[in-house]
Predict the structure.
Amino acid sequence: MTPYTFDHNAYAASLQEAYQHLENGEESGAQVNVAGRVMLLRTQGKLAFATMRDSTGEIQLFALAQVTKDFDAFAKVHLGDWVGISGEVVRTKRGELSIKVANWVLLAEAQHNFGDKWAGIADHDLRYRHREADLWANPESRLALSRRSAMLRAVRERCWAAGFMEVETPILNPIATGATARPFLTHHNALDSEFFLRIAPELWLKRLVVGGYERVFEIGRVFRNEGVSPRHNPEFTILELYAAYWNVRDMMAFTEELVAGVALDVLGTTETTYQGRAFSFAAPWPRRPMAELASEAVGEDVSVHTSRERLAALVSERGVQVHESWGPGRLLAELFEATCEESLWNPTFVTDYPVEVSPLARRHQSDNDLTERFESYAATRELSNGFSELIDPVDQRSRFEEQARLAAAGDDETMAIDEDFIKALEWGLPPTAGLGVGMDRLAMLIADVGNIREVIAFPTLKPLRD
RNA sequence: GCGCCGGUAGCUCAAUUGGCAGAGCAUUUGACUCUUAAUCAACAGGUUCCGGGUUCAAGUCCCGGCCGGCGCACCA
């Protein structure tokens, strides 16, 4: 029977730090209790050396037949077993800081091993299905998830510091809206009703601003019933944030300070590398109108006012199938995506999105066919999306109706109308700017991993069958 | 969803033109009083992902399925 508690009072990392001064062969006289897993074991007759790892690091256990209680049993612990150790902090003759084991107890057995002690666990399927083993076998897995956690903490602290209140909004929704994505459908038995898992919290959060909370944010899971890839998990975590009295420029300034600040909090620097290539989070980020970037890429002036025919030809030339329902705005956005995304490495704000692809964004003050919207791109991928919010309920209704027309024309990427949201706007949304940031994508940048699954503890996998 | 690649001992990986399925580590047993992926010796360990087919003979070739990696599509 293993014990129910262990009187643990020291950690590997702090001991390594505190006893740096111990000379080879010196004994400190200090008695400590440590606990962790035995990762390596080297027995040598009447001596045994074990490498024990706890949540902070590693320290060697040094057992001697003359000193250690139940020495023979200690020399037979299995790799992966949890042990609790009492003993003196010493440094061995060969210079390894160690706990000279006086008393010890087996806290839990490991009935499976933790992979090859040199190569760890390489099989992705095993790593993701049994992350608990992966975390011990592969230190880089532990580091990636630790950085994600540190990132979320930094995001919250910076939002709180800027006066934002954290809120929570429904995941079960009668309609899936606030973004264009295919939803998951579920059923509530007692209400005998169908619900969609949310694809975005956006409309709920704006209703809270209508309700008088001037600065709100939510960090929450959203669910999109779409393909899985190294950059897409069916459920992912998004930061959405709304600030009354701000416009799109205020929000861009906040976004770059938030992201650069979080990198600084987690990594201690904004200058890093991503997948082997230098990458800088440092603000300010360039602001580049979408039409300007697209014009540079195609070598001629294009904008949302370019003829539909010309834009369609340019898009089509680049291998994109043009749909009949697409107007100049959608075509410009498609052209931008086809020609510019690949070149956007360091964070860049792409601004002035067409109203046609921005059903929730307020119109640009100097061009009725554009909106006060930006997306930031980093390492060739979209990182954030923000805009001055559309506050006019009449315009909002017509935008939703346009979406419905597109849907009727066969476009399956449209936004569903939300009557309750329009009614909320009728109560009055003050001028407001909003922001969405993919937390998994940001975590990938901060942890320097190329696959989104590395920053999700338990990524979505196909259940094993057969 | 489509294409390409992969799945061999608990883990990491070999296996020639189709010809007896192997190694290291882990496990088990033994030796060893300063090891560091300790070392040395020995034992044991297999539905070669699953199901069919071709063949005297299949880990290897063919068909179907399962799971994964990458790319495309979709998207953030």
